[in-house]
Design brief:
The chain has helices at about 5-25, 30-60, 80-125, 160-165, 165-180, 185-195, 200-225, 230-240, 255-265, 270-285, 290-295, and strands at about 125-130, 135, 145, 155, 250. It is of the alpha+beta class. The longest helix is centred in the middle third of the chain and has 47 residues, at about 80-125. This is M56 family metallopeptidase. Its cofactor is Zn(2+).
Length: about 300
């Protein structure tokens, strides 16, 4: 079997098969942060595989070598040829990284502009709570959200203050502060930007759907340090239909029913050893296409 079929198979698995398996897996809801990192590792691995396919096609002579030999220094006719092959692979890899970074960066800039406009509106239409570090908007709908950037800001509507008991209020505010502390807006913004730019690719499309939900679950887990699962679930039910502005992160905005079910019928986190082994595998995953094509 030659290099190109192996890389094509890897592309199919990373771009089409693995996203379907990850999106439908039951373990992702038990370890949402690990699942988010898994999506990122799959994207990097898919990009690396695309680079290796382009490099293999651009060097037809390499396709006659067995996998793992055509770019190795020992298989080159001369050190100069080996260096040239490595230089080309490095250049293609740099271009791929720049392409992905430009898409993600553009998405972050668009989201930052939306949040800046929202902060300008809040400066006029909201008031700072005298006893707490959140601001209040005069709206009868119960809603709570946070605006990342510039130190972050937690926002509650008048309806939320009226309908949320003190314990519920503490739970949703802890949820929003977890978003701000974890910089979840960067993960969500990157996933949505890639999903929009590469909507034809199941990997990007499913990641854009899943990462926002996983970010909410990760914030739920952090909020449980300050409240019980039942209190947080009740708070989510209250604010789920309140609606939130674009560019913000809100406790009730994503998959509220699924998250309430997760809180009330917990399956427990993945064992530490399993998560550690999985993270070690994720660190290697983006290198696999390179090893298939270029390894010794």
């Amino acid at each position: 079997m030659t290099v190109l079929p192996l890389l094509a198979l890897y592309l199919a698995l990373a771009g089409w098969g693995a996203p379907w398996l990850l999106a439908s897996s039951s373990w992702a809801v038990r370890a949402p942060r690990t699942a988010m990192v898994t999506w990122a590792a799959l994207v990097l691995s898919f990009a690396a595989a695309v680079v290796m396919v382009v490099h293999a096609v651009s060097e037809p002579g390499h396709l006659r070598e067995r996998p793992g030999r055509w770019l190795a220094w020992a298989s080159a006719a001369s050190p100069a040829e080996g260096a040239a092959g490595h230089d080309q692979a490095l250049l293609l890899g740099s271009l791929a990284v720049m392409a992905v970074a430009s898409v993600v960066g553009a998405g972050w800039v668009r989201a930052a502009r939306i949040r800046a406009r929202h902060r300008a509106v809040l400066a006029v239409a909201s008031r700072q709570d005298a006893e707490n570090d959140w601001c209040v908007v005069e709206d009868n709908r119960p809603a709570v959200w946070c605006v990342p950037g510039c130190g972050g800001q937690v926002v509650l509507t008048r309806g939320a203050l009226q309908r949320l008991a003190p314990a519920h209020r503490e739970a949703v505010v802890a949820h929003e502060r977890a978003h701000l502390a974890g910089r979840h807006h960067l993960c969500v913004g990157a996933a949505k930007a890639l999903g929009s730019a590469f909507s034809w690719l199941p990997l990007a499309r499913r990641m854009a759907q899943q990462v926002p939900v996983l970010a909410e679950m990760a914030a739920d887990d952090a909020a449980l340090r300050h409240c019980t699962p039942r209190v947080l679930a009740e708070a989510l039910c209250i604010v789920a239909g309140g609606g939130t502005p674009s560019g913000t992160l809100a406790a009730g905005s994503q998959a509220a029913v699924q998250r309430v079910h997760r809180l009330l019928q917990p399956t427990g986190p993945l064992p530490f050893a399993v998560r550690g082994a999985w993270w070690a595998a994720l660190a290697v995953l983006p290198v696999v296409p390179v090893l298939l094509a270029c390894g010794p």
